[in-house]
Amino acid sequence: MVAVDEQLRVGLVGAGPWARSVHAPGLADHPGTRLAAVWARRPEAAAELALPHGAAVAETPEELLSSVDAVAFAVPPAIQADIAIEAARRGKHVILEKPVASTVDEAERLARTVDEAGVASLVMLTRRFAPETEEHLAHLRETGGWTGGNVRWLNGALLEGPYSRSPWRHERGPLDDIGPHAIDLLDAALGRITDVIAAHRSDTGLWHLVFGHEGGATSSVSLSMALPLNPGVSEVSVYGEHGYRVLADRGTDAQQCYTNLLDDFVALVDSGARAHRCDVHRGLHLQRVIDQARRKAEAAR
């Protein structure tokens, strides 16, 4: 656990299910952070989330930014980008949700502003903060010789449950919601994705993608959030000269992953370091891959 002399005052933008279950309790319980303020488009939701944690309710994003050292986001990408850019411009460190923006242009502006301001940034790529994931990825990099991989990330999150009434998820679909996780893990396991070889979206919202990686490996992805699977399927595998490997999952939950993220975030702020495997530039890379995949699929229709 990271020890710091003074807790970071963190403002939370958003008060939906993910903010309630992960962000707010994580920020309130971590020894290096304090949940200082909450802003949401619905003031009553912000108050309901803030009060049990002793946080203030901000009437506007500007009011929130004026009272914190850092900002965590749990809102749709189109809302996140503008506020995050302004936060970075004001010298506030940022914890970003994926995707980091709704367009590549927005993501580029965000990354540029973070760099110019010299603030710390992390993207909540949940499984990258599970110890078993990083251990497995380190082993894959050390071993080498992996020529292919695939992801099956299939669930019914848009059919029922806390995210089934999320307008942006219905509009953008699994490519933008679960896609960043899948793309990030394949990219980390097999080398940087340099090409979207093929992309197809069915009328039912099922995505199939084929990627080319730096070094010559190829991979495939199947994504859906509209299949009646309970539990859902989330499997990442690679194969090559050393056989077939499935990325380990020892059950580290989202709350613990977020605590691990906050450990890294506090350490970045405290040390003055800014580079991280899941910083805003990682988010920008994923945004570019998502954009290329969407354009490839639209061109094929």
Automatic annotation (TrEMBL):
Domain of life: Bacteria
Domain GFO/IDH/MocA-like oxidoreductase span(s) in chain numbering: 153-243
Assigned keywords, A-Z: Oxidoreductase
Pfam family, one: GFO_IDH_MocA
A molecular function GO annotation: nucleotide binding
Residue span(s) of domain Gfo/Idh/MocA-like oxidoreductase N-terminal: 8-120
Name of the protein this chain belongs to: Putative dehydrogenase
Organism, scientific name: Saccharothrix australiensis
Lineage: Bacteria, Bacillati, Actinomycetota, Actinomycetes, Pseudonocardiales
